[in-house]
């Protein structure tokens, strides 16, 4: 019983982690159609931001307040990710809209540069982030331990999802963003500044990558190559979910998480990766547009 | 939720596939850090050697320190007058964590720079990639990392431990002190798979039981499922051959799942002082590692070595087993060249057998037959300050036996 609960939880947890890293990409790749290979490095930037905040807290803030560094790190990671994204959009991406192969190569170059920059600043070895004490240990249900860190990530990704939904659906800026992604020329002729909208959307997507980086520090390594471990999975999930569909990304992440943990439990980690890949490729054969394809009236 | 639409074009699909392919290829940037200044140095008063490690990519985390240690040894030897009256001129290349790049750079060092010896490599995959290059060009590679054994190339000197100098004695120690039921976890490539094959044979011969064996891809970061398997099997000992960043994820998540060093002993063979800092000492305290050298090893040579290393690269740096093995490799090569009276590869190989050196980790001797070194085996417990407390050592340097020929249970393994 405990094993079943643990495995069910592991599946949801892996799904939530995958969703967190794919969420930003669902905007920049899914909605804006920009292939940004440097997305993983925005995750890295978020992770290092968390490290820097932790260092600052341990040096300049009374020890009693140390455990709150994480609360500061989350919005700061978002801001740093968003800032990097904004600069990248303004200086490079905006010249490469509708040229996916060029933007692929250019952003890959950017990703290598960012990795080397991180290595120059923080050194090649990994750095350690001590998770705040309130995230230690876990909740015990029927003999299964549900670590607080994983519960926290599930909560965090839920908050990000809801906020993003409210932003896109209920605010003027969000509606403009949707208008531009649905029909750029029409939105533009109705007076929406598409340049501004593009930059904002890209910054939000990148900022979400920063938050993902911040969350990942409690679970995994923090080094210059952290982004490369997640970028393939992130692209895979956005494609599986259906380009242009945020809710599809949610289903994509959860199904990959579930399938991955079940397959790993019955075989092994390497085999599970193969099974997941094969399943996705087979699925896309039958449904090339992904789990939930975006309905569109455009005649591109 | 509102579905947001944008048609996805053929171009996007192609680009997405290319994106995935590029990312899968592991970002193998070949940004070589060539420290050679281009102008051919006067060959009469210097001798060139190659230093070939990953300075970028996923393995840079470990290999940059080896380059530092080797350059430090070269500088020390140069200050003391060089080898055979010549100053050593290092040519640094970047293997970029990419095995074909290692082979390519090794070829460049041997054919274009005509170096007398190369110090390099970390992963077994990189060594296996370089091996044919060194054999074809009759070069000399000094490989400073513990590895899985079952190899003895005439063109490679192994200054790290082979299995009977690290894994075999540590398994015996665990069986005698920590428990009989073993769970083996490792990264999915040549070193862990070969090592675990040997451990399984040894467990069978020495009365241990195997309750699980799992492999995860290099760079794997989610250990939730593996940990629930461990919980279900309740082993007394986890023998850990994970490599690189996966260790961070594994130990962090093991602790979160409520498993501490009191519940199960984890003994690792890829976690040294430097890795401990990246994982976080609070997570590792109480677990074990098997090596030939710790920064805390108590010898006069080590005191000098640690001081010099910190002096050169900063107070916050730590030494470790492979760093020490890389450092002593340069000294062993220099001593062999002195004895041979020449830098000729065959002459150096001929002279190397029996050469002794008081390394920071104790006396080492080159075994002329298999070109490995006699080394002392040590097991250490990780302390809260990120250093090891030695709990056991072999007392004397252990003769290297890469093919485990002196162990009856190992028959038929290779």
TrEMBL record, chain A:
Report the superkingdom from the record: Bacteria
Q: Name one GO cellular component term.
A: plasma membrane
Q: Name one GO molecular function term.
A: transmembrane transporter activity
Q: Name one GO biological process term.
A: amino acid transport
Q: Where in the cell is it found?
A: Cell membrane
Q: Which UniProt keywords apply?
A: Amino-acid transport, Cell membrane, Membrane, Transmembrane, Transmembrane helix, Transport
Q: What membrane topology is given?
A: Multi-pass membrane protein
Check the UniProt entry and state the signal peptide residues, or none: none
**Keyword field contains ATP-binding:** no
Which InterPro entries does this UniProt record tie to the protein? Answer: ABC_transp_permease, ABC_UrtB_bac, BCAA_transport_permease
Give the transmembrane ranges.
Answer: 12-35, 68-88, 151-168, 199-222, 234-259, 265-286
Family classification: Belongs to the binding-protein-dependent transport system permease family. LivHM subfamily.
Which protein are we looking at? Urea ABC transporter permease subunit UrtB
Please report the organism this UniProt entry assigns to the protein. Answer: Domibacillus antri
From TrEMBL, chain B:
- Domain of life from the UniProt record: Bacteria
Q: Does the keyword Zinc apply?
A: no
SUPFAM superfamilies, A to Z: Periplasmic binding protein-like I
Q: Where is the signal peptide?
A: 1-28
Q: Which InterPro entries match?
A: ABC_urea-bd_UrtA (IPR017777), Peripla_BP_I (IPR028082)
- Alphabetized UniProt keyword annotations: Signal
Pfam families reported in the protein's UniProt record? Peripla_BP_5
The answer to whether the entry has keyword Signal is yes
Cited NCBIfam families? urea_ABC_UrtA (TIGR03407)
Protein name (database record):
Urea ABC transporter substrate-binding protein
Origin organism is Domibacillus antri
